[in-house]
């Protein structure tokens, strides 16, 4: 699964799963765009790590919820690397509250990043993906979009929303040879999981047949496969990477 000469944009890749995806793609020869919102030093460290492993990378600041910042990032990326081959819509946030405590602002903030950000980024790179030899749109969803989860009505809605979006884009892109797929991780050891209270983490762990949380590497390897030429005949799919959880 060689990604040499492939330019890959990974949104929200200064930390967590995005960071794991970006470094893995870079190690396999890709030119990687390390997008971040505010973690500038962390993004610079990811760029450094990729360059040391033999790949090329740039850091690109943009809040994915802001269309003007995403357009500026797109211009910068096209100037630096030309056409984009792979877009990984990974950036995502949570604001967890049971529904009776959730405000309209909590709802809108999560929608604007997790779905609005996917719209903005796909919008600016769409023509690139159509022009690429084998364009790849990869949306990072979640098992929570499949199961629902107490305290995550806003987040779960955004993650389910990606299924309809991905399936539709798969159909609309099919004539170009580009594919669109979702990777739906289970629970992964990142800052996002750290925010979940320990007693809830223990409860979740009991539902995972493989009896451990995922590492970012578990997710990155699957994303690399989806990004590669080897996955050319797979489109419109949801790949569950969740240790065998039921949904
Ligand atoms: P994380 O550790 O909290 O990292 C989030 C990343 O997204 C950071 O790099 C952050 O950059 C960036 N980000 C947040 N808001 C952004 C915005 N508006 N614009 C641009 N970048 C933004 O999260 P994670 O756990 O790695 O999750 C990554 C993705 O996987 C999310 O879509 C999440 O829903 C999904 N996921 C996570 C899990 C899990 O258990 N962790 C499970 C299933 C799915 P800054 O630091 O610069 O803000």
From TrEMBL:
Keywords from the named record: Oxidoreductase
Record-level Gene Ontology MF annotations: 3-oxoacyl-[acyl-carrier-protein] reductase (NADPH) activity
Annotated EC: 1.1.1.100
PROSITE patterns the UniProt entry points to: ADH_SHORT
Leading EC class: oxidoreductase
Membership in a protein family: Belongs to the short-chain dehydrogenases/reductases (SDR) family.
NCBIfam families named in the record: 3oxo_ACP_reduc, PRK07231.1, PRK12826.1-2
Protein name (database record): 3-oxoacyl-[acyl-carrier-protein] reductase
Species of origin: Haloarcula onubensis
